Amino acid sequence: MFEVVIGLEVHVQLNTKTKLFCSCATSFNHKQNTNTCPTCLALPGALPVLNKEVLQKAVMLGTALGATINRTSYFDRKSYFYPDSPTAYQITQFYTPVIQNGSLDIDLEDGTKKTIRVGFAHIEADAGKNIHEGDLSKVDLNRAGTPLLEIVTQPDMRSADEAILYLKKLHSIIRYLDIGDANMQEGSFRVDVNVSIRPKGDEKLYTRVEVKNINSFKFIEKAIEVEVRRQSEAWEDGVYDTEIRQETRLFDQVKIETRSMRGKEEAADYRYFPEPDLLKAVVTDEMMEKYSKIPELPDAKRDRFINEFGLNAYNAGVITASVEMAQFFEEMMAEGISAKNATTWLTVELLARLKGDVNISNTPVNAKKLGTLVKRIEDQSVSGKAAKEVLDYLMENDSDVDSAIDTLGLKQVTDMGAIEAICDEIIAANPEKVEQLKGGKDKLFGFFVGQVMKASKGSANPQVVNEILKAKLG
Ligand code: ADP
Ligand code: MG
Ligand code: ZN
Questions:
Q1: Which of 246, 339, 343, 444 pairs as cysteine with 264 (C-beta 3.0–4.6 A)?
Q2: Binding pocket residue ranges, ligand 1, CB within 6 Å
Q3: What is the model's pTM?
């Protein structure tokens, strides 16, 4: 039997206004090669200057990971040629990274926690982009010099599930801290997966294969599965030593397989040396004081939602996994409604209408509106059933909750007199059924409730209807 060993490297693009070493804008959706200057084009004589905002965001992440934040860190050159990197080296932090010895807890399915060690995280500059069009290849340097934090774990994960739990937790933390967009499709949260196997019980690390180019959690899971299968089959077939090499492989999303891209470089190949053009990066006392005050993180928020609002662990986990959803929930709660109703109307009703697209920042019905709608159910202005219609309407129309209820004619009648009058009418119209009911045919009670609701076009408060009918029919 084999044990799976996984270590993860994540490149997070930081959402600073300007690049890492120059004042070019980081919004690279602009026209190609317009967000460039002599520094990020690596023209002779141009010198890099560190963007302080990058260091501030590193302090926030380091704090969130409970890591050591090196008050002085240094930059190094990693030499390699690639057409989208005009410097022919990458400025990174090799010898003394800004963040060291952090960790992150994941919640395993059996309810236990597991700590994943984050060995280090360092600041580095992103490359540009190669664009291939038919026979033509172009280079866009808008992204060149954009700040990245590369976050590297120890080989602590033992299954694809654990890897995904770690990545989702890290992703969530980046969004909570708001230090990056962490959009996997757009490449602002890029994951390299290092995978090896070993006989169960063995302590030693075997040959690792690095898989790149995977842009969704689902594909990461697949990539690990197929890579583990490839390695264990090689082992069983007695060809492990020849077939499994330390190399970088690409994940093919169509064929669901990994393919060799290049032999894996060793650190020595990169000729790392201290970057001579930059000063050391210093985290000052003021910076430390200010940026180590980070917002409440997902785990703490989840626990608070459980304790303060009485949510169950599952719902609390779902709601706090995304910072937008958690904020949405808290804004709904500010309307003074019950947590149970807030949960249902957010995670069931609203999410279904958004077709599971949890990016609730795009929802036409904001938290205040949804909270108000729930409030109208709770103060009995509208029935739960009718409220669903109101929500459908609000998804399509720019209206406030109360006008929507009026427009749709769904205001619930709680007025005892009005409902009593309808009850009397229905009772008078069905004398035989009244007899049968009184004679013991209890099921007929539902018939009367139904008739009254129908006569009121669904607007009567069912609770009140029940009470009145009970009083009248015994
Ligand atoms: P590089 O940048 O060259 O890929 P790093 O040391 O930065 O090297 O990253 C190595 C990653 O691979 C780390 O996440 C580490 O935990 C992981 N790793 C190292 N050895 C193994 C192994 N035998 N199996 C799985 N993962 C490994
Ligand atoms: Mg790597
Ligand atoms: Zn620039």
A1: 246
A2: 5-9, 152-155, 194-196, 205-206, 208, 210
A3: 0.88
